[in-house]
Amino acid sequence: MGRTQEFGLNQATLSSFCVMIFGIIGAYGQWKQARLIWSSRSARSVSILWILTFLFMFLAYFLQGLNTGSATLLIQGMLRAAFCLPILVGIIAFEYSKISRKDVLFFVILVTGMVIMVLVPDWRNLFFQLFGYLGVIMSIDQPYQIWKNKSRGKVSMTMLITFISAVSFWTWYAWIFEDMGLFWLSLSFVLVYLVTIVIWWIYSKDQKVNT
């Protein structure tokens, strides 16, 4: 008996419902991060590489939703990408006196990937997955930024909690429905966010905790 039968779950219904719920929860976490940056006029220790990657990752969700006719992917992608923008603009406005060539090159690579998704239908699924794994890799830059600055800065704990809650659910979901690709992707995010939360607390001992 498969895990689906053991738990008596309907995959399509559960996935559609939870994509919407965790999309809203995740967007709330992003709103808290944007609010913290703009209210304090500082984005210290917030990773621009992570947020920029997530902007394009969620745009990939949006395109995949258009491609597959999935309303849940479409709405989640549009909602989450929209809430990445005030965070990204805040980082640039308050932390960047000069955009580096590395940042410009990375932006060009992301745009190129998005253009390929639009123009090459046969590669859309591949690039959709690649943006997901790139999201994991670039998430590592967030705990690194906290460690490098020896400060949690303006990284929102609320955002971290909403993100780890979502990927913890998707790890469980992928295990139940035996989707090992999604399982390892989600588990990777869980591990990175756990490390980020631990480092956040280590470097928040002498700071007023803003969430």
Blueprint of the fold:
Elements: H1 3-7, H2 11-40, H3 48-68, H4 71-95, H5 101-119, H6 124-139, H7 141-149, H8 157-176, H9 180-202
Notes on the protein architecture:
The protein is mainly α and 211 residues long. The N and C termini lie far apart (44 Å). Helix content is 80%, strand content 0%. It is globular, with a radius of gyration of 17 Å.
Kindly summarize this structure in a few lines.
80% of the residues lie in helices and 0% in strands.
Beta-strand portion reads under 5%
Give the termini distance in whole angstroms.
44 Å
Overall tally of domains: 1
As a percent range, the share of helical residues equals: over 70%
Helix and strand run: HHHHHHHHH
The Rg value, from CA coordinates, equals 17 Å
Low-confidence stretches: none
Number of strands: 0
Shape verdict: globular
What class do helices, strands and sheet pairing give? mainly alpha
Largest sheet composition: none
Average pLDDT figure:
87
Count of DSSP helices? 9
